[in-house]
Every structure is written in structure tokens, then in C-alpha cells.
Amino acid sequence: MKRKQLTFSHNLISKLALFLMVFLVCGVGHAQEVSFSADRDSIQIGEQIAYEIRVDEVSSEDVVVFPKDQTFVPLEMVEAYKIDTLNPQAKTFQLTKLYKLTAFDSGSYAVPPQLVKINDKAFYTDTLKVSVKDVVLDTLNQKLYPIKPSLEADKPFTVPSWFWWTLAIIALLAGLAYFMFKLKKKRDEAKRRIPPFEQAMLSLKTLDKSSALENRDFKAYITELTYITRRYLEEKLEIRALEYTTSELVSELKFRKEKKELSLKEEMISDYEKILKRADLAKFANRRPDLLTLKSDRKQIEKFLKNVQSAIPQITEIEKQKDEAFQKALAKKRKKQKWVVGILLGVILIVVTATAVVATKGYEYLRDSLVGNASKELLEGDWITSDYGVPPISLTTPEVLVRGEIELPESMSENVTDKETYSFGSLYQNLYVTLNQVRFKETQEIDLNAVVDRIYKNLEERGAYNIITKSEDFETLGGVPGKKVFGSFSIENPITKEDIKKEYQILNFGKGGLQQIIIFHDQDDEYGEKIANRIVNAVEFKTMQE
After folding, report:
1. CATH for 382-541 (3.40.50.2300, 3.40.1000.10, 3.30.70.2740, 3.50.50.60)
2. pTM for the complete prediction?
3. How far, in Å, CA of 216 to CA of 237, rounded?
4. DSSP 8-state symbol, 172
5. Which sequence ranges are marked TM in the entry (predicted)?
6. Cα(485)–Cα(108) distance, integer angstroms
């Protein structure tokens, strides 16, 4: 006993000496300390908290940077006051900065640690837990006043929906009108495309009905007369009759006659040449032909056209085959045009339908219907109800939860007799569902409030930030009480390095151990929120007999 007493005294003396050495070393310089204080930890909606950060043992050579902007989320910073200095004449002094914080939604919140930099060295304050309560409305003692009349306010300028509908209808009608106009124009051109000989005869009759001879406009008459023949020869014989001079055209006709492509008499060509020369004299030398000569030329031209028409050899079998090939190509072209028109009308119909769906049900509905949505498919698919663990917990989920491994802290593992985890999905996917169950060697009462406090830290350890945490009491359909923690957070996608915003619901129970149901889904995912609510509302504890 005495030896133990001496040993204890010797250890005590050693520790005391070490403490004194540390104290002396620390006393040589000055060590900065960062702390905070709040005037309250419970407020009603809209009330303000005075949140003060203090930095001790600061010298005039130190550079101190306090938190800026909205770093107190989920609380909102109302005002940040100027930095205050206590005893600035001393060698070391204290700096303080006051912030006014508030919240507009009831619940339990945790203000994250605040970063204070001193000479590029980081210091953090502790977490502040704040309870925000609803404002109690007293309708018995508080006097009620009549509702104030509404005030007219100028409405902001917005383009009405009917304008876009009208614009779409006008564009559609304009497109249809353009299409019909082009179609009608092609049909009219097809009707006007009559055979060259019939066209020449029709032109001669039109010339006869004109008043050129009565008005003594002989130059115009003979010019039109020869133009009719030149156009006929160009279309029928495929020669450049409209560009040829008189001698060139006559030479071409004689050449065709020699090659037996045109069975025309020599004197017929000679008579036609005389008419062409009289026309040249009338056009270029102002020689006026007499009326009788013009009437004779008119008859001669008609005779010439008829002779040329009959002098052209009959179509051979090769030409017939070429014509058939042309007709087939033409039919193929028309079929292609029909396909183009059909596709165009189909595209217009799709655009009009898509516009109507977007206007009535929204763009997200159209996108999810066409491209697909993983959350929507899970929600509308076949759900599965299964029992997991001991005691059995009945869960209804879109997919079966798969058993996995769960790691617990060493301090907690010593008293654990069994642990189970079942999950579906992952933290970075659109939906993540996990069931954790832990049973202890000794029966003990689970402090669910302590479990709720640990959730915020667990989310931070998994890489989450901008965490908003709320909690409330929860009870299953069978009457098993628990704690529900819900809110939102952000996490970095390990592949794209972009922010993923998540919402979560975590149910905590202490029935014969610890049971925890975790549900994560993407923020602003209406289908994910419906899935989460459906899972939560169907949680049920069963007995071993069931």
C-alpha cells in the first residue's frame, strides 16, 4: 500500500511539472481563442437571435476575418454589425462581431459551426441548436378587426396564353396556305403544258382574233407569226430556234432533212425561209409587207406547221422505253413529294400536339412521357411489401431492399448483439432507401433525441453541406412512436463535380433496439417525394407470431 502511495505521488509530481512547463511556454506568446454566445436558443417565428462571435488575445498585427453573407443557414442573417474592439490600447485585446439571426418556419434547427480566419489559420465555433416555435394566435382575448378592403395594384406585364395559341394557329394556317398555293401553281402549270402543235394552232387562232391587221401593225403581226413557228420548232425538234438567225434555222432544218430526221419537201423549207426574211426586213429595215402578202403568209405558216408535224418520224421502241423510264422517274418523284408532304404534315401535327400538352400539363409532363423518368417509373411500377429483420418491420417499396453490411463505432459495437441493414439505390442516385436495425446485449432505453442530434453530424461526415434539419414526433399505423427527421442538403457528384440537391426523411424508433429508415430523393422531384411519403405512411412493426 505504501509503495502504491509513493508511486502515485511521484506521478502527480511529474504531471504537475509538465503542466508548469506548458504553462510557462504558453505564457511567452499569446494564443487566440474563438468563441460565440447567443442570447437565446428558442424563439418564435420572426423573432431575432443575437449571435456574437468573440476572438480573444488579438494583437494589432493579426488579421481577423469574420463570417460573411448567409453562412448561418438554415437560419437567416438579418443584419451584421461592425466589429467592436475591447480595450484596443492594450498589447492584446478582444474583437467581437454581432449578428442578428431569425427563422420563418417552425422546427428544430442547427446553426453550423462558423469559420473565423486569423492570419490564414482557420478556427470554428461550436454548433448552436435553435428551436423555432409557432406564434400562438389568441382569438379570445385579442380583439379582432374587420378585414381591410383590397387595394388595386398594377399587374405586371405578361404575355397572355391566348396570344401564343393565336400565333401558333396563324403560323399553321400560313403554312397550309403556302402549301396549297404551291400545289395549285404546279397544277396550273401542268394544265398549261399542252403539246407544241396544239399550242401553235391555238396561238395562230389567238393572232387571228387580234386587231394587228385592222390597226395596220404589220410589223408586230409578222413578228408574232414567225415567233409561233420558232417556239414550235424549239419544243418539238429540240433546237434553239428562238436564238437562231434565219440562215441558221434554215440550215438546221435542211440538216435534219438530210439525216432523215425530218421528211420535209425542199420547197416547203424555201417558202418558210422567204417568210422569215420578210419578217427580218420588217423588224430591222422597216420594210412594210402588204396586207395580201401577210394573209398569204398566215396560210403558208399553218401549212408549214402541219407538214412539219407529219414529217417527224414515228417514235421508235427505244424512244418508247425512254419515255416509260421517264414516266417511272416522274411517278417516283411524285411519290417522294407525297412522302415529304406527309412527313411535313406529321411534324406540324406533332408540334401542335406537343404545344397543347405543354400549355395544359406542363413541359415536365411532356418530357417525362417522351424521354422517361426513373422516379415516375418506380412510382407507377409494381410495389413490393416485405418484412425485414427482427422484430419484423414491414416496408412497401418500389424494389426489394437487399441485405448489406453496416459499420458501427467501436464504442457502440461492444454492447451490440446483432445488426442488420437493407438498402436499395445509392446516395447519388435519384432514390435511396435504407433500413438499419441494431439490437443490444442489455435491454436499454433508446434516447431518440440523441439519435436525432447525431444525424446532422452523420450527413456532414458523408460529404453533405447546406444541411437543413427539422424534427417532429412520428407514429406508425400500429401506434409505435418514433422521431422523424426531415429536410434537405447538397452533396457533390463524384463524377461531374456538380452539386446534387437532395431531400430526406429519416424515421427513428427504439422498439427493442434501434430501428432507422432512411429515404433520400432528388430535390424538386415530385415523383420522388410521392415515393418517400408512400413508404413512410406504410411502415408497420409486426410481432414474431405474425
Report:
1. 3.40.1000.10
2. 0.40
3. 33
4. H
5. 162-181, 339-359
6. 10
